[in-house]
Design goal:
- By secondary structure, the protein is α+β, with helices and mostly antiparallel strands.
- It is built from eleven helices and 13 strands.
- The strands form two sheets. Strands 4-3-2-6-5-1-11-12 form an eight-stranded mixed β-sheet. The protein has a five-stranded mixed β-sheet with strand order 7-8-9-10-13.
- The longest helix is centred in the first third of the chain and has 15 residues.
- It binds aspartic acid (ASP).
- Aspartic acid (ASP) binds next to strand 8.
């Protein structure tokens, strides 16, 4: 009988019976998860700590009606264009050959679209190019020289992304990278392959209508092998948005994030009802479980850094790392840095 399609008449009858019967069903049994019915009173943006100016800009723009993705991109562009920030866009630290290669991705919740670029050279604002991929193509990711060609078609110019200070940092690294190579060591230089400078900006935001977007942009790991692509441009790793649930993104060791699809996983934990902070902590726990021994210290903790940031449709937010730190938040109380939850006390 269930194979027989309902006639219009019997469908209306069935629907009527369902409505009549609904009063007999306890409300808790039919209620949608609270998160789906809620929206923030005013826009909320969360980002890595370097995004403190970005979150302020994003909520200002969302407050005056700007779309969430445009607000997020305008927020991270402040960092991309800042020559003093050596982890993102212009002035980002280069790969081992001295070439700045940039990665970025974004998602727009309301239209269920995504865009990304990887290994992009010579363009200061990869977040904008990722948004162009999202808006004007049937694809999600463009890479390398063709991503650059795509940017040029929209009027972007190829520029030298090294600043005097990022070039100086690279020259110093090259001079000191090995004791037996042909580059003479520079006194007081950095240890060969010592501390790897990393940095990225991830920004996630929700407006007062409950629409959500996210963006992540980076110059990646300093002194990386040319062509290396991190987590930032990977949809579901560097950032992820589901307009029914929330958005999440990451900074830190990209390879470890890719292994757990951390942006997606954090949103999935929120879908299960977790608060954004707990979702970020749960993702970090998964990272530890999936970390190979060579990346663990003797006490079992990872020997790298990785942070997650998240906001849900209701405007609740959180962030977490292994050992604490700060992240940027902006809402009706203004822009500020708050403490990340720590997986290890
Ligand atoms: N996640 C970035 C990458 O792996 C780097 C960072 O955030 O420090 O490329």
């Amino acid at each position: 009988m269930s194979d027989v399609p309902l006639s219009r008449r019997s469908f209306i009858g069935a629907a009527g019976a369902a409505v009549a019967g609904a009063t007999l069903i306890p409300e808790t049994a039919i209620a949608a998860p609270y998160i789906r019915r809620s929206r923030p009173a005013s826009p909320v943006a969360v980002a890595s700590a370097n995004g403190i100016r970005g979150v302020a800009r994003a909520i200002e723009l969302m407050g005056s009606g700007t779309d969430t993705l445009d607000a997020a991109v305008e927020g991270v562009k402040i960092q991309e264009l800042d020559p003093e920030d050596n982890s993102v866009g212009y002035g980002g630290l280069p790969n081992e050959e001295g070439v700045v290669q940039l990665d970025a991705s974004c998602m727009h919740g309301p239209t269920k679209r995504a865009g990304a670029v990887a290994c992009l050279e010579g363009i200061k604002t990869p977040s904008e190019i990722a948004r162009l991929v999202l808006k004007y193509t049937n694809h999600i990711m463009l890479v390398g020289r063709d991503a650059q060609r795509f940017a040029l078609s929209y009027g972007y110019q190829v520029e030298d992304l090294l600043t005097p200070s990022s070039r100086e940092a690279w020259l110093r690294w090259r001079a000191n990278r090995g004791a037996n190579d042909d580059w003479l060591n520079v006194d007081g230089g950095q240890e060969p392959m010592g501390v790897r400078v990393t940095g990225t900006i991830n920004l996630n935001c929700v407006n007062s209508a409950g629409d959500i977007s996210s963006v992540t942009t980076t110059s990646g790991l300093s002194w990386k092998i040319p062509g290396r692509v991190g987590d930032s441009p990977i949809i579901g790793a560097g950032q992820y948005t589901d307009n029914d649930i929330g958005a999440a993104g990451s900074t830190g060791r990209g390879e470890s994030n890719i292994m757990v699809c951390g942006g997606f996983l954090t949103v999935e934990f929120m879908r299960q009802g977790m608060h954004p902070k707990d979702a970020c902590l749960a993702t970090l726990k998964r990272v530890v479980e999936k970390t190979p021994p060579r990346l663990l210290r003797p006490d079992g903790r990872p020997n790298f850094g990785l942070n997650f940031y998240a906001v849900n449709k209701k405007g609740e937010y959180g962030g977490a790392s292994f050992t604490g730190g700060r992240y940027a938040v902006a809402d009706e109380r203004g822009a500020r840095l708050e403490d990340l939850a720590a997986l290890y006390s």
